[in-house]
Amino acid sequence: MLLQNSKIILSPVSKSIIELVNNLPEKNLTVKILQSLDFVLPGKWENLVDFDRSIEVITGETDSKAVGEIKERALELYDNKKNGYQTAIWLYQTADSTDQAAAAAAIADKVGNTFRFIPFLDKLTPKADAIQSLDLKLKLAAELIAFSKLSGTGVNPAKFAVALKDNYHKEAFLRMAALVCFDGVLPLGTNFVSSIKADLDKGNDLANSPAFSKLAELMPAEGKEDFVNESFSATSDWMDNLTKKFGLTRETVTEKLGSFIEIADDKLDYLAAFIDASTNFFEHTGIQTVNRFLIKRAHQEFKS
């Protein structure tokens, strides 16, 4: 990001959508934690990490000429900044990049390819509940704005709440489920929605949030703090219903991670910090969501 006359200017996304998709990992810790949530979306998420294969899976087209033309049109659509695809990518990347970046480097150095235990808890600092709540709300605000850019519906919390129920599938649904599990239930407990609701009137301390300073330019000009709260309120019933439907607790979420992470029950706050610092599920699934929107539009235009 650049500062110009005290106004935030969004830096362009330098990589093409093809590079972004093709550079997604097939298997790493982010993919592992997403796969651990298969119970909320059984067999519905495929980790698409190849652009050409994405075209075939999403459109059903297998003819090489058709795939090539769709690919070319998708690139044209993505390169046109007015379409909002690049902005959506930036939003998903920003939502992840503010999560304990310093700790991530230390963790990456320690973990290597082994996730059986966490011997470096001293490198992590669990977030205070208020900070964790604010981070969750800001991720929801980023998701809402990204959805508005992709769907052209305008930044409207009420419309987003409807879309969340009716139009969120595959990687988009998985991203929101991961948000509930790893940014809500794990650090704050099963009743995280009601806890955050109770604190909405106490102030957000947005001035000290790096994420807010980056996202604010894309929020409505007036009432940015209210917008953050409204983003949470509009989605709170959906998150609460998801938590109840799948019986999500700190224990059940931890159990799903147990095949590749072991940690003592009294260290669950550290597990939440570990996931924050060492994964980028928002960016990973966000790139896949943008890719799906883009390919579907390119395919429609190819057929017309």
Secondary structure elements and their pairing?
Blueprint: E1 2-4, E2 7-9, H1 17-22, H2 29-35, H3 51-59, H4 64-79, H5 85-97, H6 101-111, H7 129-151, H8 157-166, H9 170-188, H10 192-198, H11 210-215, H12 224-245, H13 250-257, H14 268-278, H15 281-303
Antiparallel strand pairs: 1-2
Oligomeric state of the chains in view: single chain
Read across the widest sheet, the strand sequence of neighbours is 1-2
Structural class computed from helices and strand pairing: mainly alpha
Number of helices: 15
The rounded distance between the terminal residues' Cα atoms is 38 Å
Shape descriptor: globular
Rounded mean pLDDT is 86
Helix content: 55-70%
Beta-strand content bin: under 5%
User: Would you report the number of β strands?
Assistant: 2
Characterise the protein shown here.
The chain has 304 residues and is mainly α. It has a domain at 84-294. Helices cover 63% and strands 2% of the residues. The protein has 15 helices and two strands. It has helices spanning 17-22, 29-35, 51-59, 64-79, 85-97, 101-111, 129-151, 157-166, 170-188, 192-198, 210-215, 224-245, 250-257, 268-278, 281-303, and strands at 2-4, 7-9. Helix 9 (170-188) crosses helix 13 (250-257). The protein starts with a strand and ends with a helix. Residues 1-12 have low confidence and may be disordered.
Notable characteristics:
mainly alpha, 15 helices
Brief sketch in words of this structure:
This protein has 304 residues and is mainly α. The protein has helices at residues 17-22, 29-35, 51-59, 64-79, 85-97, 101-111, 129-151, 157-166, 170-188, 192-198, 210-215, 224-245, 250-257, 268-278, 281-303; strands at 2-4, 7-9.
